[in-house]
Design brief:
The protein has one domain. The protein has helices at 8-25, 48-64. Helices cover 54% and strands 0% of the residues.
């Protein structure tokens, strides 16, 4: 997680939110896919459903390739 996002507590919060969104959609991911997520600063204020939608879009894009 890049330090540009903020201090450790903020980075950990972002990490927890992203992990939970991934956990909820993990069954949609192809087991042969490797995904790297590089969160941006706007993730700090994003509502959780928006994070879930973005993860879902990413996983669907991986399933299509």
């Amino acid at each position: 997680m890049p330090r540009a996002i903020g201090k450790a507590t903020i980075r950990n919060r972002v990490k927890r939110r992203v992990r939970e969104a991934i956990r909820l959609r993990l069954d949609q991911l192809n087991s042969q896919c490797e995904v790297v997520i590089n969160p941006r600063r706007r993730l700090l204020d994003a509502p959780f459903p928006e994070i879930e939608r973005e993860v879902e879009k990413l996983f669907l894009r991986c399933a299509g390739s």
